[in-house]
Specification:
heterodimer; A: 7-stranded mixed β-sheet; 7 helices; 9 strands; B: 6-stranded mixed β-sheet; 7 strands
């Protein structure tokens, strides 16, 4: 009988120990809920503050290029054709689309077909797409770039800049991130290709609209849009 | 002889122990939760956590550095959850990928407060949440008054987990003060 009681006490103590240690988290979460009551009283004012915080983030940050800037030059970038490419090589194109992409990013990958289609549709109108990769992870280097380009039927040059200089010059943030250069090689559009990572959910064709406007001699109605994708990994210089 | 007397009570006590443990829920896999959210919803959630330091981790399964950083957010939750840190994760995956996201959360033991953006992968999501530069991961730290104090990940620089740790520790030790408003 004494043994049974001892065992019960031991078990109860063990259980109590487990409750207080391993399950303490749950109690903390419950405690965390308490401030809600106070917060609710302040909510209208605090939400305003919150909204201000979010709004303040909308202020444009300084980037590599602004609309109207002369586009940063590039020279001697190796392409998947093993030749060297410079901005000057493309002086005959009416408009240039500089697209920062890479192999490994699923978002950039989702845009590959769209870029091929774009080049096809705008070829005869004097638009030249130039894709550039500045990521240095193994699957983003020249040889895998060649494989991907062949597989997806890239109909545009695909260049590799191991120094990442062109990325820094344009302040390319993510893949994909595109910049349109007009006939004077001034930046006329920058940002996203369209508004959805999924091709079948696109509602706004930002890049095409910008190209159409420029081809008609107008400025794009939305010259800057918010790009999205995988951040470009810049190595510490 | 003594062992024999132990056996009978021990069996029933083991049953009692098992019942206690299962009702407490200490054993077994922790469950993870996920809910859809938009920008207004996130602001409401932030309001609910007034009085706590809040870390918001914007991530996506398609974003490799996000996946690499995610365990760190969970670790901060486990370590500082009881000290007043609330960790909120917001996935910018497409909503129809919610199953995939849930699997990931389970594998990560993500007992954090998890959400998936309603907007899908596109400009709308990045615009609504004001993800600086359109780049993920994006980690934000709010103080106990709900002011945004730090944003990590903007501008293509890799996020250093120990930088986040330092910022969290700093905010946790601060009393409710009006010093240092949002950057």
């Amino acid at each position: 009988m004494a043994h049974a009681i001892k065992t019960v006490v031991a078990v109860a103590a063990l259980a109590a120990l487990m409750v207080s240690s391993g399950c303490g988290r749950r109690q903390a979460e419950h405690r965390g809920a308490l401030p809600t009551k106070e917060a609710k009283q302040e909510t209208p004012k605090e939400t305003e503050k919150q909204a201000t915080d979010v709004r303040s983030l909308a202020a444009p940050k300084k980037s590599g290029v602004a609309i109207g800037d002369v586009a940063p030059d590039f020279n001697g970038l190796v392409g998947i054709d093993d030749a060297k490419h410079s901005l000057a090589d493309y002086k005959d194109a009416k408009l240039l689309v500089l697209a920062f992409i890479c192999n490994h990013c699923p978002v950039a990958e989702a845009y590959e077909d769209r870029l091929v289609a774009l080049q096809k549709d705008y070829q005869s109108k004097g638009v030249q797409l130039i894709a550039v990769n500045v990521n240095n992870v193994p699957e983003d280097r020249l040889d895998p770039m060649k494989v991907r380009a062949k597989k997806k039927g890239f109909n545009f040059p695909y260049l590799y800049d191991a120094t990442q200089k062109i990325g820094h010059d344009y302040d390319a943030k993510v893949t994909p991130h595109v910049f349109v250069l007009d006939k004077d090689r001034k930046v006329a559009y920058m940002g996203a290709i369209d508004d959805s990572g999924k091709a079948n959910k696109v509602k706004k064709e930002y890049l095409r609209d910008a190209l159409d406007a420029l081809l008609e001699g107008r400025q794009p109605t939305e010259p800057v849009t918010r790009q999205f994708g995988c951040s470009i990994k810049y190595e510490l210089r | 002889m003594q062992n024999h007397r132990f056996l009978a009570p021990k069996r029933s006590l083991l049953v009692i122990l098992a019942v206690i443990l299962s009702t407490i829920g200490c054993t077994g896999k922790p469950s993870t939760t996920i809910a859809e959210i938009d920008a207004a919803g996130l602001n409401r959630v932030l309001g609910q956590h007034r009085g706590q330091i809040v870390l918001v981790d914007f991530w996506a399964t398609w974003c490799r550095p996000c996946v690499a950083l995610f365990p760190h957010a969970v670790a901060l939750h486990h370590e500082f959850g009881q000290q007043g840190l609330a960790v909120i994760t917001v996935s910018l995956d497409d909503v129809d990928q919610i199953g995939l996201v849930q699997k990931f959360l389970l594998r990560q033991n993500a007992t954090t407060e998890n959400f998936i953006a309603t907007y899908g992968i596109g400009s709308a999501a990045f615009e609504a949440f004001q993800i600086v530069d359109g780049a993920l991961p994006c980690v934000r730290l709010y103080d106990r008054q709900g002011n945004l104090r730090r944003t990590f990940g903007a501008g293509g620089k890799p996020i250093q987990p120990d930088e986040i740790d330092r910022a969290v520790a700093e905010l946790l030790t601060q009393e409710n003060s009006e010093e240092g408003l949002a950057n």
